[in-house]
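Office hours follow-up: a student asked to see two folded examples consecutively, so here they are.
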Amino acid sequence: MEYKVKKGDIYILKGPGKVRVKRGRMEAVGKSVEENEEVFIPPGKTIPLEAEEKSTLSIEVKRPGEIRKIKERTIPSSWDDLISRIVKEKARTILVLGEVDTGKTFFATYLANKLLEKGVRPAVLDGDPGQSDIGIPGTLGLAVLKKQVVFLTQAKISALYFVGSHSPGLHFLPTIVGTKRLAEAGLKKANTVIVNTTGWVQSDGGRALKRSKIEILSPEIIVLLQRKDELEHLVKSYDPKKIVRIHVSKKASFTSEKERKKLRELPSTRYFKGARKIRLPLERIATDRCYFGTGREMKIPGTLYAERLSGFEGTLVVTQKPLPQERLNELGKELGNIRNIVAGEEKGILVGLLDEKGDTLGMGRIEEIDYKKKGIFLTTPVKDGGRIRIIQFGSLRITPEGKEAGFISPGYF
């Protein structure tokens, strides 16, 4: 459908949908959308479109009610005030905090686009491994922006850090380490790093995670995107001059769990499209975040593979079927604590693939571990398998297409 709009007209467009500027110029999430440029809005996403001049648009939406004209901007002047402050103070690290559905990603994208407009090179650190816009679910991602984008999924990935799960709940240390490493990488390539975070801000875990991020990053500016005062407990001991409070827009959209799952799987399926199967010899690969491959190999009758672990950790044994309790007790008397892995349980596990320096090359899906011939078969889009030196085990399972397929308990392997 064609729309003729006047300068200053504002529309809200909910995905899935597509808009093309036939004539004129529009602004979307701080990005100037030029003539003949097209923007696709994925399911679960909502964006404002503001006419920078008299324009003609071609808009396709699934239902008529998913595009509507509004009277005023959804973006308050406080956002632009903050951008001016970042430029003036040459702030290096901006930490964005907010509950679920407070528009953190939209806010971070707008900041990055407007900073680019003012000659500042920004990087965005996506600190949410569950709702990842940079990278794929199970990772933290960094993008150094060289041009404006409507959605961070369009930004080129500059660096990744493998967490191994959608949630930081059982992966606190990798989440904190990854945030620090990516922030440092971003500061080497960009003037300002905008750190986007998860919506987990309350309870023991939420408080601890966010407080730890503040302490390890030492941001010059901490942005609280809040409806009332639900984030104040996180910043009570910090310099008030560093805190910027911004009220959540009433037009911030709610995303259902079903939509969140779709949004999670979209970058994952896109990442694994065209992936190939490779075999890596275990003798030249180090394993990480697991017990498997970290001990001294030994022979135990009736097992596919066994290794003696360090100190009191006991012995890891791999078998075709779970060992009966009687056999576990028998082995335990001689070898201490027995960790019994059942062959085949590795299938589908999402793993991080690192080079010799410990930098993440990409992700893979375990297809099989050949315990007898000491090989591991992976499906991965990483092109140069010869650079892979470390495999980090996650706790998320995925299908060959990259869709979610359950979890394994951290520490099983």
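And the second, which I mentioned at the end of office hours:
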Amino acid sequence: MLPEERRQRIVESLGESGLVRVDDLVPELGVSAETIRRDLIALEDRGELTRVYGGATRNPGAREPGQGRRDVANPLAKRAIARLAASLVRPGQTLIFDVGTTVLELARALPRDLAGQALTNSGYVAMELARRPSLHVHLAGGEVRADDLACSGPETEEFLGGFFADIAFLCAGGVHPQAGITDFYPREIAVRRHMLQRSTERYVLADSSKLGRVALRRVCEVSGVSAVITDAEAPGEVVDSLRARGVRVLVAPLDAVVPVAVDSASAGADPLPMELPVPHARAGS
């Protein structure tokens, strides 16, 4: 089990009971007590728990995934990612939009006169896309998760099976070079796999806090997406590791302008976002 996956299991156990004990976690996770203590220190540094004698308790300031935490995390980074992702869209395309606040920011960043077809399983994203009169919006049905107005289940999967898309924009709970693209909600993971299957280009929108993290279950290998779009705060070692595995990583600068460049391999084609290097000063941060 990878360290980040192990730490996520600790956080989930904490969410269920409000208290975890080192002695209980040792046999459950199959590691030493010292390893568990290091995990608790790392999680406390991230604000996800408070250490106490023999274990840890829930941090009153922390929230579980799905309780609105994503609504306030890294807003500037998400907007930067959204602007870069929006630069990939061309008029007349069929686009798939996943759930999540970064995908919602992408919907807001699209031109008001954009024409084409849009598919989504998010009520919030559908409402934003519907502001564009030339964009035909198709909203999937299914079982609704209240905090994200996210639809999932067999009805959602059947809906996606009736379309083919040019681009899918996906969210993720974690992006890890070895563990792959991961997320927290199994029903939505199944929907996301259908999105991957029905699209030509597949972009994962993940702010820097998601890189190197492992959520509950795998969506796909990192090689299963066209690119990961992140922000300039992304850990340099994770970006390097993803690129070493052949994954294209697009890094959005945290300012109002998204530079574009033409790939030398596709001169004369539409401009593509520049793959900016992560500043060396941030490596390992």
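Two things to take away from it. The chain is about 30% helix and 25% strand. The two ends are 23 Å apart (CA to CA).
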